[in-house]
């Protein structure tokens, strides 16, 4: 979201490198992000493999000038998509962490902390993001 710059910007190169080695005929990409910029970069880099859900990026508690119903629907669709991904890469976002827990599968789960991307599980998320589980910055 334009007003949500609390988290530092992480370098995306490590993600692009990982995505580059995936079989593009087997995988499509879905990016859940608080910024359109990240989604736009992914769409440019992987134009034939990007899927997205309709609607404007919003936070459930920060509707600003957007229709909160539309924002809620987008968040619900985004969450459902994350839960059903074959490969799920999460950050310190509670949204992604919750999707990892609900997903109930550790295969294809990766934790990304800017400078590294490593396999993780629902049970080790707290090792990668200590003190941040479901509440980044608290």
Write the layout of secondary structure elements.
Elements: H1 13-20, E1 29-30, H2 36-45, E2 50-51, H3 68-83, E3 88-90, H4 94-103, E4 109-112, E5 117-119, H5 125-128
Parallel strand pairs: 1-2, 3-4
Antiparallel strand pairs: 4-5
Descriptive keywords:
single chain; Rossmann fold; disordered N terminus; 138 residues; 10% strand; alpha/beta; two-stranded parallel sheet
What is the overall shape?
A: globular
Quickly give the structural class.
Answer: alpha/beta
User: Which architecture does the CATH hierarchy give at level 2?
Assistant: 3-Layer(aba) Sandwich
Note the beta-strand portion: 5-15%
Averaged pLDDT: 83
Radius of gyration computed on alpha carbons: 15 Å
The CATH class: Alpha Beta
Residue share in helix: 25-40%
CATH-derived topology: Rossmann fold
The biggest beta sheet is recorded as:
3 strands, mixed
List unreliable stretches of 5+ residues. Answer: 1-8
The overall strand count is: 5
Number of domains: 1
Distance between the termini: 20 Å
Total of DSSP H or I helical runs spanning 4+ residues:
5
| Largest sheet strand order | 3-4-5
Helix/strand order: HEHEHEHEEH
Protein name: Alpha-(1,6)-fucosyltransferase
Question: In summary, what is this structure?
Answer:
By secondary structure, this protein is α/β, with parallel strands linked by helices. The chain has five helices and five strands.
